């Protein structure tokens, strides 16, 4: 079956409605900002409880990872992401979701072959390349400090 570009374009338009770009951008901005605001409120709470800034930041990160994984496990994070789009990709919550989602999805295949084997399907490359880049940059920094003395 030969189809020209116009016919193909018409065929695609039939199945792919136009995305309301500005509406999607606004939702991503608002919900992403809301996630960041919640994170700041959590950090302010830890600071008010007497933690120093660095400790409060660590506790906030742990709390946001926990909340994101919990919402993923309860199938609520995906519902938020349907409306927020890229707004849920705020780095720490998005990464926690990327680790937890495959574990939840493959739990029916068992603990070892499902959850444990698939948990880093999405986040694995990020971890590998992040660690690798950190090692390379660390070596470059170390070598440059050796010769600068």
List the main descriptive attributes of the protein structure presented here.
149 residues, mainly alpha, 7 helices, 78% helix, 0% strand, extended
Please explain how this structure is put together.
The chain has 149 residues and is mostly helical. The protein has a domain at 20-119. It is built from seven helices and no strands. α2 packs across α3, α3 runs parallel beside α5 (91-105) and α5 packs antiparallel against α6 (111-118).
DSSP summary: helix tally: 7
Straight-line distance between termini:
71 Å
Low-confidence stretches: none
The largest pleated sheet is described as: none
Shape: extended
Strand content: under 5%
Rg from Cα: 21 Å
* Element string (H = helix, E = strand): HHHHHHH
Mean pLDDT: 86
Q: What structural class results from the helix and strand content? A: mainly alpha
Write the layout of secondary structure elements.
Elements: H1 5-15, H2 21-48, H3 53-73, H4 77-84, H5 91-105, H6 111-118, H7 123-147
Give a summary of the structure in a few sentences.
With 149 residues, the protein is mainly alpha-helical. It has helices at residues 5-15, 21-48, 53-73, 77-84, 91-105, 111-118, 123-147.
